[in-house]
Design brief:
This protein is mostly beta strands. About 15% of the residues lie in helices and about 55% in strands. The chain has an eight-stranded antiparallel beta barrel with strand order 1-2-3-5-6-9-10-14. β2 and β3 form a beta hairpin. The N and C termini lie far apart (about 60 Å).
């Protein structure tokens, strides 16, 4: 009996010692890993900016395009919080140039018209803000909210009225800079200690105020805008490769 009590006492003391040692050895908090990535993907667009209605002065004639960029973040020591940025170029296609030509033909009551688009629906973005990281082994999820500069371009056009008088109408290409906003996430998978792949999605918003210059518009007919102030908003879907420190 004494041997049993003695053995139980030794086992109890050993268990207490192991538990105490385990409590003292808390896991080291590493936080998020700083990284830089090259990304690209689709850029959708909505609202009036995506409409291609000749008779609606708010139509922006933009459609789904693509984006290319660089993103990254520097996380604070042993923290899931960091500061990062997204610097990217977005190019949207032009929606319904044929409909624009048909509209001018009807407004001027002529047999035919031709529209040449000058420039692109596009923008450059320089955005910075906070990042927060969730780590799951080789997988990690970064969420972010960014703000900064968006420099946007509204394409111009040249309209040729084939049998009209003063047959060349010109709308000059316009540019404007404005506050740009972005919210989104990147899901990263580490292939090696430093390199990996990612997929991500972002919502982007900017509302530039374009001033539009027109030339050779002596006749008050046909579509004509002197300014354009509609939101450029949509969702990006990206893939990329990253390097982490």
């Amino acid at each position: 009996m004494k041997k049993i009590i003695y053995g139980f006492s030794i086992l109890s003391l050993l268990s207490i010692s192991i538990l105490s040692d385990a409590q003292d050895k808390k896991p080291t908090k590493t936080g998020g890993k700083s990284f830089i990535a090259v990304t690209g993907g689709l850029s959708t667009v909505g609202g009036n900016y995506a409409k291609g209605d000749y008779y609606n002065s708010q139509s922006g004639f933009a459609k789904t395009g693509f984006n290319l960029g660089i993103t990254g973040a520097c996380f604070f020591k042993n923290s899931n919080w960091g500061i990062g940025g997204h610097f990217f170029y977005t190019h949207y296609g032009f929606n319904n140039s044929q409909g624009m030509a048909e509209g001018y033909k009807e407004d001027f009551d002529i047999d035919s018209s031709t529209v040449y688009i000058k420039g692109q629906n596009q923008n450059l973005n320089f955005l910075i803000g906070p990042y927060y990281n969730f780590s799951f082994g080789k997988l990690s999820l970064d969420i972010h909210a960014l703000a900064g500069l968006t420099h946007a371009t509204l394409p111009g056009n040249e309209v040729y009225l084939e049998d009209g008088i003063g047959n060349q109408l010109i709308q000059k290409k316009s540019t404007a800079s404005v506050l740009g906003l972005e919210g989104g996430f990147n899901l990263k998978y580490a292939i090696t200690q430093h390199f990996g792949v990612l997929i991500g999605a972002n919502y982007n918003y900017a509302k530039p105020n374009f001033k539009v210059v027109n030339e050779n518009r002596n006749v008050n007919a046909g579509r004509k805008i002197d300014k354009y102030n509609e939101a450029i908003a949509g969702i990006q879907g990206n893939i990329g490769v990253f390097y982490s420190l």
